[in-house]
Hints:
The complex is a heterodimer.
Chain A: E1 4-7, H1 18-31, E2 42-47, E3 59-65, E4 71-78, H2 79-82, E5 96-97, E6 102-103, H3 109-118, H4 120-127, H5 145-164, E7 172-177, H6 183-199, E8 207-213, H7 216-225, E9 233-237, H8 243-247, E10 254-260, E11 270-274, E12 277-287, H9 289-292, H10 302-320, H11 328-341, E13 343-350, E14 358-360, E15 363-364, H12 369-374, E16 378-381, H13 384-393, E17 397-407, E18 409-410, E19 424-426, E20 429-431, E21 434-435, H14 436-445, E22 448-454, E23 464-470
Parallel strand pairs in A: 1-2, 2-4, 7-8, 7-10, 8-9, 10-17, 18-21
Antiparallel strand pairs in A: 3-4, 5-12, 6-12, 11-12, 11-16, 12-13, 14-15, 17-23, 19-20, 22-23
Helix pairs in contact in A: 4-11, 5-6, 10-11, 13-14
Chain B: H1 18-28, H2 34-55, H3 72-75, E1 81-82, E2 97-99, H4 113-123, E3 129-133, H5 135-140, E4 142-144, H6 150-170, E5 175-179, H7 190-201, E6 207-212, E7 241-244, H8 254-260, E8 265-269, H9 281-292, E9 300-303, H10 313-332
Amino acid sequence: MPVRLELRSTGRLRKANGAAVRTVLGSLEQALTDPALDLATLRIVCDWVQYKNNFREPVTQRPILDGDDRERVEIAIDLRRASVEQAPAEGNAEPVVLEPWGPMSASLVWSFNALYWKALGLWEALSGRTYEETLPGGESDARNADGARESILRLFRVWDGLAARRALPDQLHVLELGVGNGNQARVWLDTFRAVDRELGRDYYRRLHYLLGDYSRHLLELARGRLGRHADHISTLVLDALRPSTTLGFLRYKLFFVYISNTYDNLPTDEIARIDGRLYAVETRAVISAERAATLGVPSGELPELIRRLLRLGPELLAEAEPQRFPDRLDAVRFWAAVWDVLGLEERYVPLPPLDEYVIAPGVHGDALRSLVEGAGDVRMHVSNGAAASFLDTLPLLHPHGSLECHDLFVTALEQYDHSFRGPGKYDGSVVNWVNGSVLAAIGRRRGFQVAFRKFAHRAGSNITTMTAEVRE
Amino acid sequence: MTGLLLPTTVVGSYSVPDWLERAKDEFYQRRIGRATLADIHETAIKAAIKDQERAGIDIVSDGELRRDNDVDYFLERIAGVELPAPVKEHYFDYHTAVVREPLAPAEAVAMGLVDDFLFTRAQTIRPVKFSFTGPFSLAKRICNEGYARADDLVFDIAAILNREARVLSAAGATLLQIDEPFLAGYPEQAALAVKAVNAVVDGVQAEWALHICYGNRHARPSWLGHYDFLFPAILDARVDQLLLEFARKGDDDLALFERYRPPFKLGLGVIDVKNEAVEEPELVAARIDRALTVLDPSHLSINPDCGLRHLPARTALAKLRAMTAGAALVRSRYM
């Protein structure tokens, strides 16, 4: 009976840490000789999880539920950690379970994610670092004047064409969705004004730059950095999943939408094709008994306390539980500690028929059909949140408008075979690479040409530029 | 043609269900054959007509459900138009179409649209409107390698459509409609488009409608603007009514009808086909009332802004019901 072994992150085998990987594989080979193992029910996948903070144990079991008597199991190994960490000893106490099984997009990890953006100021106060300082390289690729100039010149060409036909409106609207700390907007607006002066178009006078973000803290920060453009900006608290609910008045009016490092931070499901059958990956948030003991709260009280934290936020939690959290930073400290030890268990359940699976409001899984039918076995993100945001933004675009997005994109499904694409923990937020193929497929059905190219203005960046423009 | 005050009609297309989209895609992927797809189309058309009847629409259409989009169905029926890649990934995509030499004389080109009309007429006792895309827009989707003057291609297509219209008229079609979905993108060519329209209608015994909108590809406008670009050229169009969109754009352009007093009726768009929110009948009535401040009721017919193809079937039906209810509210004041 063959054992199915999927070895992803193959590039690592050839790198310096290849020896460590081979050590893990050697142990695995030895373990598989155990005659007690039923190899027919076993599947082994090896990833190299590059996120130092993530939701996984070095070695985990994932049941594969087929709705019949078969009991198959996937053993998932994180090659990076399995080579240096001991697997948990057998007979460990049960973990503290924080939620029932469900699709990952419904997991409470997204409540932690939302809390991070909502209470970012408190988080930064505890960590002593701004969120941008936590990014690799210390700054976002969005702050790049060359990239900004390129997109602005493209915009000017569109406007020039419309102006020649007397079809250019008086007000020229641009939206930035997910504003970071405002540096991107400052670079873009500075560059815009310079290009406008250089070309003598007088478009800056007509420009209205809207900054939309879930975090009021970030919007305030951004506004503070854009003083010199104050007459041309508006800040709006909005949900990136549903920008139209706030910006419906701009339907067909936005000439340019810029989105940076937002989609990778929105809820997603994962689906898998295993032996030709489609499965949904279900998760549940847990904290191992060993780690729960470090939190200073009786295990039995943890789930409710965490629910209160997510519902109230650290500030109100400290007010509600002054004995436990004398200071609001104590509550933030608890939040950070829980986040640090939070894990996800996974299992596979049969995926409903694709036309019953909802990717995002108004889009069902049929849009995935050509992707999953064209691929072999694969496990991939559906990027539901990114899809919802993308689809809800497109109606805002002017017929000659475009959307540009800088983010971590998977642009071909085979890329899932080569690297781990999330979820990981990024400071206090969740990060998953965005399945660009899904966005391209659904964008195409909405009449948009979606294209990807490597971010051209910084060598070695993981960032990909996605553009969406109306196609005929 | 119905003798009714404020008659209601559709622009042409009706809701395309997901299953029909899948079937059309599967045809291109060679999973189902032409005969099966034709069967599916006929069933869908019967349902579309039934929905229009249930909604109380006075003049119905076949929902244009056989057509992949507003262009390909016609271009693939014109001899001399080449489709270098006839298989599409998604049925709604446009074919690439090329004309390498002047088209054959119109007498030699039969597009066969009359069969579609006869099928529709057999399904209903209500008056039927038959629409097709006009020569200006069809020419815009062709890569012209065969004509030194692009206008000549437009007029050769017009001649072919004229011949087709004569066949339709002879078969009993009494209300024909030309759609020019691309004209708003080329406002400076309105006069050319009008001349071509006149070439299509020339000598054809039928009531003629002309529909011009700002595009409805994927339920999005392709251009933004106002209908002032049509005037005064449109006044020369030998049509009986002009169907325009007003629900989405607002009624600023009604002033054009007040100013120019065109000889044709206005087909007033009162239903926004790019928005799934269903209008209240009172809102429809208010839109009609505003038009009545400019036009006599005998110069008005009531329709959606454009085709309903991108709306879910239930929404399309609900919108048509709201439209007929709104028209009835206004009509009752004249009874």
